Amino acid sequence: MLSPVPDPGVLEAGLFQRIFRNHAASVAVITVADPTPTGFTATSLVSLAAEPPLISFNISRAASSWPALKSAHYVGIHLLAEHQHDVATVFSTSGIDRFGQVRSWSRGPHRLPIIDDVAAWMVVRVHTRIPAADHVIVVGEVLDAAHRDAAPLVYHNGRYTGLAEPA
């Protein structure tokens, strides 16, 4: 019979942050029409299923984009190309008009803001929102998408980088 493993308790927050700071993740920008365009940078985008095509991402309930996202039926998801450091930075900066800073976008399906020159964009119907501590996990079904061959922008060790660049 196996001995029970003692519960070590909750992982120290600093260790958790250091582990995930070293975890490389693709960079996405999530947009909402709301009637004024709203958006934010995310590194939590995950492919959940192919049939039907489902994705998920996380957002803090303290985020400035949360009020628009909590009632949105559709979102735009953009996978940034490695040359789009500036776009990622703009959409991760608080207190600015993000769409005023990024000029190359237009309205797409469901009036969603679609950013130009990205590696891929998707139109997603929000399926469910799951509370998780101070965040919400958003699950959605991909309805439409476009993709082009482009190296991805990656977030690693506290900075945006490309796969070919030294991390």
Strand percentage: 35-45%
Main sheet attributes: strand count, strand direction, barrel closure: 7 strands, antiparallel
The radius of gyration is 17 Å
The rough form would be described as globular
Uncertain stretches: none
Q: Can you count the beta strands?
A: 12
> What is the subunit organization of this protein?
single chain
Helix-strand blueprint:
Blueprint: H1 13-21, E1 25-26, E2 28-32, E3 38-42, E4 46-50, E5 53-60, H2 66-69, E6 74-79, H3 85-91, H4 98-101, E7 105-107, E8 113-115, E9 120-132, E10 135-147, E11 153-156, E12 159-162
Antiparallel strand pairs: 1-11, 2-3, 2-6, 4-5, 5-10, 6-9, 7-8, 9-10, 11-12
Write structural notes for this entry.
The chain is mainly beta and about 170 residues long. The protein contains 4 helices and 12 strands; from the N terminus they run αβββββαβααββββββ. A 7-stranded antiparallel beta sheet has the order 3-2-6-9-10-5-4. Strands 1-11-12 form a 3-stranded antiparallel beta sheet, with no helix packed on it. Strands 7-8 form a two-stranded antiparallel ribbon. Strand 11 and strand 12 form a beta hairpin. The protein starts with 12 loop residues before the first helix and ends in a 5-residue tail after the last strand. The mean pLDDT is about 90.
